[in-house]
Structures are given as C-alpha cells and as structure tokens.
Write a structure and sequence with these properties.
By secondary structure, this protein is mainly alpha-helical. Helix 1 packs parallel to helix 5. The protein has a single domain, classed as MFS general substrate transporter like domains (Growth Hormone, Chain: A, Up-down Bundle), CATH 1.20.1250. The chain has 7 helices and no strands.
Length: 193
C-alpha cells in the first residue's frame, strides 16, 4: 500500500507539470507555439532524468535516490510556480523540473519491481500503477478547481508539488530489501537471483 500511495501522490505532481504547462505558459503571455516548445523541454529533461537515475541506481541504493529526486521534484515544481521572466528561463526550469519528476516515476517503477515477491509481482505492480493513474485523472480537476477558486500559480504549484514530498515520506516508511539482499541473508549465493 505504501508504494501504491507513493506512486499515486507523485503522479499527481508529474501530471500537473505535463498537463498544465501549456496553459500556464500561454497565460504568462507567451504564444501557444512557445508553450509547446517549453513542454518539449520538460520532456527532454524527463528523458534525461530517467536515464541518469537508472545509471546512478547501479551504484547507489534505488530507494534513497528515488526519495531524493521526489524531494527535488517538490522544490522544482515550487520554483516553476514562482514564474519566470523569459521563455529561456521558463524552458530551463521546466527541463529541470521534468528531469526530477520523471526520474521519480522511473525510480518508483524500479521499486515496484523489487517491492513485491515474484509470485505477486505482476499483480502488485498492476494494482499500484492502475490505482495511481487515478492521480493522472484527478490532477487537472484539482488544479483547475484551485485556479478557478482564485489561488495563484505559486500556491497551486506548491500544493501540487507536495504530492512528491509525501510520496518520499511513504517510501521512507516502506520496509525494502532487494531480492538479491534477501537471498544473501537466507544463505544462498547472491548470484542465484
């Protein structure tokens, strides 16, 4: 349940950026084509973030790395919400935000693969991902409601970014050992996994 909660909460932050960036950029006074370009930079940053997290996880613990990028996701979504003066600054902030938010998604997918025993891995992962996609459906509604209620971009971004921070806390509570460590503890050679 903790890993499902973590994924659900982070996906709300992740999709806030992906779904709302074009509208927010246009509302800042930039052209719709500029908004599309900013979204491209968010996706470029996201691709880089997933790749870098994957490489770093070969050397460092996946759970700790994922919690770190989730916390940094919260910070970057809050920075995005402060608004930027130029299109270049906005593109840079969105690229960095995309880097951390997508790295968080990739990290949680890796944790999902290790959190469930082999015999229920497909079911557990399917449940977590399927349930968490509700966050993707809810985020446009919740953010839209907050904007409609008169809250500022800074406030809405901060509220939507908190999902990643709470996700990091949920992962911190997750008792987690890789199968390799579990096999080694039981006395079997680690290469057997």
């Amino acid at each position: 349940m903790l890993v499902t909660l973590a994924y659900f909460l982070h996906i709300t932050t992740f999709y806030f950026i992906l779904k709302w960036v074009p509208k927010i950029v246009v509302d800042m006074g930039f052209t719709p084509s500029s908004a599309a370009a900013v979204l491209v930079w968010a996706n470029v940053g996201g691709a880089a973030g997933g790749a870098v997290l994957g490489l770093l996880s070969l050397r460092f613990g996946l759970k700790g790395l994922t919690m770190l990028v989730l916390a940094l996701s919260t910070i970057m979504v809050a920075v995005f919400g402060r608004g930027q003066a130029t299109l270049g600054e906005l593109s840079l902030i969105c690229a960095i935000t995309g880097f951390f938010t997508n790295a968080g998604v990739v990290g949680i997918y890796g944790i999902l693969a290790q959190a469930f025993p082999t015999y229920v891995r497909a079911t557990g992962t399917g449940f977590a991902v399927g349930t968490s996609r509700a966050g993707a459906m809810l985020v446009p509604i919740v953010a839209g409601y907050l904007f409609h209620a008169g809250y500022s971009l800074e406030f809405v971004s901060l509220m939507m970014g908190v999902g990643s921070l709470v996700a990091a806390a949920a992962l911190w509570l997750l008792p987690f050992k890789s199968e390799r460590a579990a096999v080694a503890i039981q006395g079997a050679p680690a290469t057997a996994v």
